[in-house]
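Table S2 (text version). Query chain:
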Amino acid sequence: NSVDKTYKDALLSTVINDRSPLSMPELWFLIGSSRFAAIYWIIYNDTRVPDSTVRSLVDFALNGFVKSDELDRRSLDFTLDEVRADGEGKAKEVILMAAEKLMGEKGYFGTSIYDITSKAGYGQGTFYLHFESKGKLLQELVYQANRNLRRTMRDAVSGVEGRLNKEIRSFKAFLLFMDVHKELYNIVRESEFVQPETGRFYYERLLTSYIRALEESRLKDEIRSIDSRDLGVFLMGIGHFMGLDLLFKLKKDHEKWNEYLLELASLMAKGYGGAFS
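Corresponding structure-token output:
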């Protein structure tokens, strides 16, 4: 909250805005992208933010990154189909689901193997058939979250045309997925301290997928000439802080999600400088 206030104060001292206060989508677009760029370079890569990334950020914030502002509102029509595991992997999946719930609520150190197996309905012997330790379970939990989220977002945009439509559909899929798996926010965040390499893996794999998708759109001349890695980091930041607000800080109101995403689409296409002119 302290960091968030610092960013907001700095932004409001710089931006002249007759429509103040800034809307939620504007804050995600401007602050989410810049905060995550700082996190990615300073914390994950132990270096200052490159000047080229700062220039990309300014360009992104003022002008957006998608060349076409034509949004098909059907991109917002997406629901999440939950798939439950069964068969041979059932015990492992049940243990993982129990761990997700408990570690998300009580934290890694506040959750014991006994707590997990009791909630899952299995003995500790079954636990050790699938996991060497609680640390290995945490790693698998983060890896599985990454796989499932990437698959959900990939499936969501299957058959969708245009980068703007794909971005909005991806954000909607992300919100729906995290609404079901809210505990993963805490688990992934804590893994960055308990197992730094695991936390880094989570974001790097998401970023790699994003870069690949953005490069495909670049070949189709759908996006402006902003570095794909920078763009991926900015967009991940928007999604991350949007999720924190909509799923945790604010009273959950699914009816407003589409409204927020429509405003975000305008920002992505035109930037803060032109979205509402």
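Notes on Table S2: The CA atoms of residues 46 and 264 lie 31 Å apart. The chain has twelve helices and no strands.
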